UniProtKB/TrEMBL annotation, chain A:
Name of this chain's protein: FAD-binding molybdopterin dehydrogenase
Keyword field: Oxidoreductase
Coiled-coil stretches noted in the UniProt entry, renumbered to this chain: none
GO molecular function: FAD binding; oxidoreductase activity
Gene source species: Marinitenerispora sediminis
Pfam families with a match to the protein in the record: CO_deh_flav_C, FAD_binding_5
Tree of life domain: Bacteria
Keyword Cell cycle attached: no
Domain FAD-binding PCMH-type residues, every copy: 1-225
InterPro entries the UniProt entry points to: CO_DH_flav_C, CO_DH_flav_C_dom_sf, Diverse_Substr_Oxidored, FAD-bd_PCMH, FAD-bd_PCMH-like_sf, FAD-bd_PCMH_sub1, FAD-bd_PCMH_sub2, Mopterin_DH_FAD-bd
SMART domains: CO_deh_flav_C
Automatic annotation (TrEMBL), chain B:
The species this protein was found in: Marinitenerispora sediminis
Pathway recorded for this protein: Alkaloid degradation; nicotine degradation
Every 2Fe-2S ferredoxin-type domain range: 6-83
Pfam families named among the record's database cross-references: Fer2, Fer2_2
Phylogenetic lineage: Bacteria, Bacillati, Actinomycetota, Actinomycetes, Streptosporangiales
Domain of life: Bacteria
Annotated keywords: 2Fe-2S, Iron, Iron-sulfur, Metal-binding, Oxidoreductase
InterPro entries per the UniProt record, alphabetical: 2Fe-2S-bd, 2Fe-2S-bd_dom_sf, 2Fe-2S_ferredoxin-like_sf, 2Fe-2S_ferredoxin-type, 2Fe2S_fd_BS, Aldehyde_Oxdr_Iron-Sulfur, Beta-grasp_dom_sf
Protein name: (2Fe-2S)-binding protein
Length: 331, 174
């Protein structure tokens, strides 16, 4: 770990001023569970580390009367997963959080930091590897023809095929959640689906955040579909492992007919991937086995796998189908 | 060379410890082991993967290797040395006793982390079945593979039936 100075501001404005300083030396630290790995492995080398812990961000978890959810960016993953409004109104969010990391990590990690965790691509995480455009722009992509079992089949480019590893972000995208941001230019609100950028020819730029900009809160709109929902995570180990693929599914049904379907997948792209083709195939249709099967068949539309993850398109279809059957009560 | 030195005060096992000249890079784990001499907390991976460094912060289990010591000022830290009530070896904590009785270790390196994690787990009330214990203890690896006996030891203290359906009616969270 390289030397840095540690700053512990108490308000958003001071934290943002550090981050927006034009010396480009600042990294933020919240729960620290990703940042500490990046510092230890010499992947991030800030001159100044600014803690968001001392009252900069709030950790409140609030449900509005209509059921909408507001999570302060500093709310811990474990607290959000255990909150009654989340467990009852948004089971897919609780399940995504509880299938993430370990109990200890969930007690430390914030939901804001979760959305901004870096990819688990092994070449990105190993500074001894030369070719990684995301870590060292212009050096190539060792993963394209290397070990890419975990990596993207949607949204990648010839310069990077990393996946975004967050489980929690997947239901957020399915439910049209937004993040509230505070930065040098003031406040703004953007959909979680637009927070992360596709790699294109600049994979080192991962989000639309400007220097110094903070996530202050996450808001999830009220959703009837979310009450009957499920997060299904498929992985190489039964627990404490990142997703090969995952599916967040929510269905609002009325007398056997699907009023609205929300479907997104994790582990398949540089950001959580909304499955709009699957949703369209479900909307207005009867909730029966043939409809669910036909809809799930759309889950892998447009995928471009590499040799190491050629299994993913079929796994995506099966994962969506299983999740739809669970939610639709069609075992 | 540190870029800065800080002064921080840690609260560990009910006592205050001033850390003058703290390099901001110091993890809570290294502060406990190197500065405070509390070597019961172990370093396995230093990257959040193994759980050997588990301690309680304000009663909740965390990984001390992923924590900067300076950011844990003012939090009440409990390590394996502070788990048993006064009297230490003569009166071990029920989890320590259960690990001995169930032979829940071989080399013992992961054991302090397992026990601190189990203390957090029991407080969370996620001990309804052996499966639940296994899932919520998955952040603690044991390279000797003592898992079966670890689960049994935790189940003893949480009074979790090892056979499904055998739970006695009056018990709840401990
Ligand atoms: C062993 C291990 C296993 C894991 N397994 C999983 C898993 O299965 N699924 C999963 O989804 N995740 C997993 N994770 C990742 C974990 O969920 C993230 O590390 C965690 O959520 C990050 O939150 P944090 O508060 O600790 O962020 P930090 O590490 O403090 O920060 C992460 C990044 O976000 C930035 N940041 C933090 N908060 C803000 C904010 N409010 N505004 C702007 N920038 C901010 C920081 O500068 C940093 O770049 C795992 C992590 C570990 C260590
Ligand atoms: S996939 Fe992206 S993160 Fe992985 S090696 Fe290629 S450029 Fe780096
Ligand atoms: S030493 Fe902390 S998790 Fe391994
Ligand atoms: S007893 Fe040896 S690692 Fe667990």
């Amino acid at each position: 770990m390289r030397p840095f100075t540690l700053e512990r501001p108490h308000d958003i404005a001071t934290a943002v001023a550090f981050g927006a300083a034009d010396d480009d030396q600042t990294d933020y630290i919240a729960g620290g569970t990703d940042m500490m790995q990046l510092l230890t492995d010499d992947i991030r080398r800030p001159g100044r580390l600014v803690s968001l812990g001392d009252g900069v961000l709030d950790d409140r978890i609030e449900a509005a009367p209509d059921g909408a959810l507001r999570l302060g960016a500093a709310a811990r993953m474990s607290d959000v997963a255990d909150h009654p409004a989340v467990r009852e109104g948004f089971p897919l969010i609780a399940e995504a959080l509880l299938s993430s990391a370990s109990a200890q990590v969930r007690n430390m990690a914030t939901v804001g930091g979760n959305l901004l965790q870096r990819t688990r691509c092994a070449y990105f995480r190993d500074p001894g590897v030369h070719g990684c455009n995301k870590r060292a722009p212009g050096t190539g992509c060792a993963a394209r023809d290397g070990v890419n079992r975990m990596l993207a089949v949607l949204g990648g480019s010839e310069h990077c095929i990393a996946t975004h590893a967050s489980d929690f972000a997947v239901p957020l995208v399915a439910l049209d959640a937004v993040v509230r941001l505070s930065g040098p230019g003031g406040e703004r609100t953007i959909p979680v689906e637009e927070l992360h950028r596709l790699p294109g020819d600049s994979p080192h730029v991962e989000t639309v955040l400007v220097p110094g900009e903070l996530i202050t809160a996450i808001e999830v709109p009220a959703s009837r579909a979310a009450r009957t929902s499920h997060y299904l995570k498929v992985r190489d180990r039964e627990s404490f492992e990142f997703a090969l693929v995952s599916a967040a599914v929510a269905l609002d049904t009325d007398g056997g007919r699907i009023r609205e379907a929300r479907v997104a997948m994790g582990g398949v792209g540089p950001k959580p991937w909304r499955m709009r083709g699957v949703e369209r195939a479900l909307a207005g249709a009867a909730c029966d086995p043939a409809v669910l099967r036909a809809a799930a068949a759309r889950a892998a539309d447009g995928t471009a796998p590499r040799p190491g993850n050629a299994f993913k398109p079929e796994l995506m279809r099966r994962t969506v189908l299983r999740a739809l059957r669970v939610v639709g009560g069609q075992p | 060379m540190p870029a800065q030195t800080l002064t921080a005060t840690l609260h560990v096992n009910g006592r205050e410890h001033a850390l003058p000249d703290l390099d901001p890079r110091t993890t809570l784990l290294d502060a406990l082991r190197e500065s405070l001499g509390l070597t019961g907390t172990k370093k396995g991976c230093g990257l959040g993967h193994c759980g050997a460094c588990t301690v309680l912060a304000d009663g909740r289990r965390i990984l001390s290797c992923m924590a900067l010591a300076a950011l844990y000022e003012g939090r009440e830290i409990t390590t394996i040395e502070g788990l048993a009530p006064e009297g230490g070896a003569a009166r071990p904590h029920p989890l320590q006793q259960a690990f001995v009785e169930r032979d829940a270790f071989q080399c013992g390196y992961c054991t302090p982390g397992q026990i601190m994690s189990a203390a957090g787990l029991i407080d969370e009330g996620r001990t309804g079945s052996p499966e639940e214990i296994r899932e919520f203890m998955s952040g603690n690896l044991c390279r000797c593979g003592a898992y079966a006996n670890i689960v049994a030891a935790v189940a003893d203290v949480a009074r979790t039936p090892l056979v499904p359906g055998a739970r006695e009616p009056e018990q709840g969270r401990s």
